[in-house]
Structures are given as C-alpha cells and as structure tokens.
Amino acid sequence: MACLAAYDIASNFALPDELSLYTFGAPRVGNAAFARRLDARVRQHFRVVNDGDLIAGLPQFLGTYRHAGCKVVTDSEKFGTFIVEPTIVENTFGIKASTLITVHPLREYRECLEACLGDEDLQEYMAKGYAMAHAVDSCQPLTPPRVLPDWLKERRKRSLQEP
C-alpha cells in the first residue's frame, strides 16, 4: 500500500521536497514496469527486509512481480549487521531463504534496526522517542547510480571498522 500511495502522490502532486519512502517487510507490489516507474518517481525508497522474512519474498511463484527501491537487509538474529543493495553473491550465499514468518512482525524489525545502532546513535534514537528523524532529515535524493545518504555511509563505515 505504501508503494502505491507514494507513486500516486509523486505522480499527482507538486511537492516542495522530494518524497521519501521506507517500507519494512513489504511484499512485491507490481511488475517490472511499475518497479521502474516507482524508482523513477520516488528515488529515495528504502526497502528494509529482515533476513529470511517470508512476507518480503511474496508472491514467490508468480514471476511477474518485482520489488522496487534500495534493498536493505538487516540481520534477523540481531547481531547488528545489515547489507545495503546486496550483490548476487550476497543474495545467493549470505542471505537466508524467505521462509520465516517469525521475523516479520514490526517489533522484530524495530529490534533488528536498533541492534544496528552504535551507543551514540542508540542514545539519540531513544531521546527522540523512537523517531529516526536524523536519518530522514539528512537523506539525499538517490540518482542512478544509487548514492547512499551520508548518515548511512557513516554508519556503514563505522560498522566495517569495528572489530
């Protein structure tokens, strides 16, 4: 529903700022043509998926459905790792098959994302009442090739440097 609403808003309204879309555990919504159009109109679209989430992999057997947006896979075991735009190798060998319904509840998404935050980030996150306004405020539009927002680049850099 969020993808359809964002597409409709981006298509029919003159907005002062670029529209951002974050989805959590969303199933595939449309075909390849719709995915391309959504990506063109809502260039700042992050599709957060808990590793192994069954719902995010649906529908499985109807080959015409495609995901849109920048895929962000969080570690469903809450070790605090995530992968942005996984490669073919990461998708094939590093990510669980979409078979777990237990990692789909929003509570699980919140806990997996919280595990990705460092101590300072977690304190700021808690101080804002679970609002990640700092992430949204500092995002930059994604243009092909996709450019990650500064807040995500910094977080990713720190994750790679930490033991």
TrEMBL record:
<dbReference type="InterPro" id="IPR029058">
    <property type="entry name" value="AB_hydrolase_fold"/>
</dbReference>
<dbReference type="GO" id="GO:0006629">
    <property type="term" value="P:lipid metabolic process"/>
</dbReference>
<dbReference type="InterPro" id="IPR051218">
    <property type="entry name" value="Sec_MonoDiacylglyc_Lipase"/>
</dbReference>
<feature type="domain" description="Fungal lipase-type">
    <location>
        <begin position="1"/>
        <end position="60"/>
    </location>
</feature>
<dbReference type="InterPro" id="IPR002921">
    <property type="entry name" value="Fungal_lipase-type"/>
</dbReference>
<protein>
    <recommendedName>
        <fullName>Fungal lipase-type domain-containing protein</fullName>
    </recommendedName>
</protein>
<dbReference type="Pfam" id="PF01764">
    <property type="entry name" value="Lipase_3"/>
</dbReference>
